[in-house]
Structure formats: structure tokens, C-alpha cells
Amino acid sequence: MLDRFDIIESLHKIFSFERKIYSIMRKDLGSLPAVFPMPVLMIAAYDENGKVNAMNAAWGGICGMDKVVFYLAPDRKTLANIRAKKAFTVALADEDHIKEADFLGIATGNKMPDKFERSGLHAVKSSRVDAPVIEEFPLTMECELLEDTDMYGERRVVGRIVNVIADEKVLDDKGKVDAAKLKPVMFDQFRNGYYAVGEKIAQAWNAGAGLMKK
Ligand SMILES: Cc1cc2nc3c(=O)[nH]c(=O)nc-3n(C[C@H](O)[C@H](O)[C@H](O)COP(=O)(O)O)c2cc1C
Question: Cα–Cα distances in Å, from 196 out to 96, 106, 179, 187?
Fold first, then answer.
């Protein structure tokens, strides 16, 4: 006949066995930038002669409410251009232009002076900053350079978002950007994939509100 202590001991053995199995099933992957999704930012700037160049950058995001930040290798042509003009634009790559967006991440303006022309994209000058606005991308941030600093060998570039230009076709009936219409692309650095945005699954600052009452 099992007493209470025997049962507790058996349960303890079962749980510790489960924990061992669980830890066997987990793997250490080493040091990785293990964040998903990452954005697909299209950074565009003029060189000192007013020539357009643009690049693809996934290592970046938003800082506060009116600043964009991204990390560039020091040899990027785009970085030299940003320094020359103290301005740039950042567009979100969309599904309809994934080929062009990827090309901007493969070719460099350092070796291919007509990189932007070859992309087949078109640009007009921003009316607010000295930087090109790529016409094909539906959402663009016009930015002035605030900071360009060393960050462990990369350059951390911070820009103030002076204005955001959005195609009307990506706005909802209240004038807000609708992600389903924008169709921005996400980058997966684990397997170098580009992904489409899925369905909206919940409302932010709301889905967890019920737990506040406990
Ligand atoms: C998906 C993707 C993401 C990238 N992210 C970055 C990044 O965040 N920072 C960076 O310096 N280069 C990044 N690159 C590489 C640059 O886009 C690439 O070196 C490009 O040739 C630079 O262009 P440029 O020299 O004309 O400015 C990325 C490339 C791809 C395809």
C-alpha cells in the first residue's frame, strides 16, 4: 500500500524525468540576433552630386516616437551619402517590390554607380529634406540626420522623422495606415527569408487588459 510520501516521491521522479527530457530537446544555437521579424527598410540618400542610391537594411527600428535608428557597416555607399547630405529617407519594402528591395541589398553603389537606375525604381526629391523619395514604395519616412556614431564597429545612424508620406491606397477610412493594405515585408535572419504579414490577431494595449484586474 502506497502512502502519501510514496506518491509525492513518485510524482517528483516523473517531473524531474520530464524536465531532463525537455532540456535534452532544447538546443543552444550560440550567439545570434534571434529576433523575428526584422523590418525591411529601404534607405535612400543622394551623393554629393545629387545622384540617388538606396540600400536594404534589416538591422533597425524606431527610437521614441519620432526617430528612426539603424546599423550600417562602415563601407556602405548609403552611409557616405547620408553623411554628405545629412538627410535620408526610409521606406518600408512591400510585397509588390520584393525583387527590387532584395537587389538593393545585394548590389552596392560603391561598385555599381547606376545601381538605382538598374533597380527600375524611380525617385523624386523630398520637399522637406535633401533626400530622394522612392515612388514605388507606399510608405516613406523623410528624415534628417541626428547622429552617426560607432557602435561596436557598426555605425549607429539615428534620424529624426520629419514627416511620413503614405499612398492613399494604404490608408483606412480614418486615414490610418492599414498594414493589410500596406503589405510590408518582414525579414527572417534565421534562414534569410522574406515573409508577408499575417492576419491581425489582437488589439495592442487591450488584449492583456483583463489580466490587470487579477
Ligand atoms: C535582407 C538584407 C538586410 C540587410 N541589412 C543590412 C543592415 O541592416 N545593415 C547593413 O549595413 N547592411 C545590410 N544589408 C546589406 C546591404 O544592403 C548591402 O551591403 C548593400 O549592397 C549596401 O548598398 P550600398 O553600398 O549601395 O549602400 C542587408 C542586405 C539584405 C539583403
Answer: 11, 20, 11, 9
- Inter-residue contact 99 to 119 (CB < 8 Å): no
Residue closest via CA to ligand 1's atom 7 equals 57
Distance 31 CA to ligand 1 centre (A): 21
Q: Which atom of ligand 1 is nearest to the CA of 110?
A: 25
C-alpha cell at 170: 494604404
Domain ranges of the chain: 38-192
Domain 38-192, second-level architecture:
Roll (2.30)
Instruction: Give the pocket of ligand 1 (CB within 6 Å).
Output: 53, 55-60, 70-73, 76-78, 102, 105, 107-110, 115, 187
Containing 15, the helix (H) or strand (E) segment is helix 4-25
88-126: per-residue pLDDT in tens?
Answer: 999 999 999 999 999 999 999 999 999 999 999 999 999
pLDDT digits 0-9 by tens, 47-65: 999 999 999 999 999 999 9
- Pairing type for strands 139-151 and 132-134 reads unpaired
Note the pTM of the prediction, 2 decimals.
Answer: 0.91
Which protein residue has the closest C-alpha to ligand 1 atom 18? 105
- 15 has pLDDT over 90: no
Q: Do residues 183 and 166 make contact, with C-beta atoms less than 8 angstroms apart?
A: no
Q: Which residues contact 73 (CB under 8 A, 6 or more apart)?
A: 79, 154, 155
Which of 40, 56, 190 gets mutated to test ligand 1 (max ligand atoms within 8 A of its CB)? 56
For residue 214, pLDDT beyond 80: no
